[in-house]
Amino acid sequence: MRFMFVGDSMTIGRAGDFTWRYRMWQHLSTSFDGPYEIVGPRTELFDTTAGAPVSYEYGDPSFPADARRHLSGWGEGWLHMAPLIGEAAAGVDILLVSLGLIDLGFYTDSGQTAENVRRFVAQARTANPSIRMVLLPVIPNVRADTDAPFAAEVARFNELLAKAVADLDSPSSPLLLASVPPSYDIHHDTYDGTHPAASGEHKLAAAFADAMHQAWGLGGPYAPALVSRLAKVDSV
Fold first, then answer.
1. pLDDT-based confidence at 25, cuts 50/70/90?
2. Does residue 236 lie in a domain region?
3. Domain count of the chain?
């Protein structure tokens, strides 16, 4: 089974990060019953000094090169990924998608962003009619604390995202809406009010892992303490 991570800066990560992709890889390595592969056209992290995705300095240097693959980018959202997903999704079984914050923050309003979600799904299905997708709602970042219109757009987009998942779900190409962990706290689980710290990485991985386990019986429930011990890097 082939998985591909699709996301923005929260998913690509910056130089020195472990990323939630890493936590998910650890989870799959310990819980997935059967062969799997992580795929995607990119492997880099974003280098904030260079201002470009040119780093390979992951928090764990032993993170295997083939497990680092993804389709995510710093400053990229549904608007950017919809035109790319058709080519990238060929041969992929499950997309794990975390997008939308950057769209709403800089590019499109909630309605336009929701249209790009539908475009993305259509393009992915053109490449692979049986593809499955797990979509994560937007987690409001620190900007939402002081920018009420932005917070309202995030809330409205999440409603439209849930509607799109309900409208577009099909037996041949199932869609899942993951749940934002209720304990996710941007003041504790991020390092800057937006991007996940270690605890946030675990919670994002858990959102996807638990959705797949509960709906499709894939893998097991996310066990962050086990993942942390295996990684030997930190604890939740």
1. very high
2. no
3. 1
Nearest CA among 176, 132, 154 for reference residue 77: 154
pLDDT of 212: 97
**Residue 91 falls within a domain, yes or no?**
yes
Residue 226 has pLDDT above 80, yes or no: no
pLDDT of amino acid 65 = 97
Question: Distance (Å, rounded) from C-alpha 54 to C-alpha 76?
Answer: 16
Question: Stretch 161-170: mean pLDDT, rounded?
Answer: 98
Host domain of residue 74: 2-231
Q: Which residue has the tokens 């386990």?
A: 213
Asked whether residue 225 carries a pLDDT value surpassing 80, the answer given is no
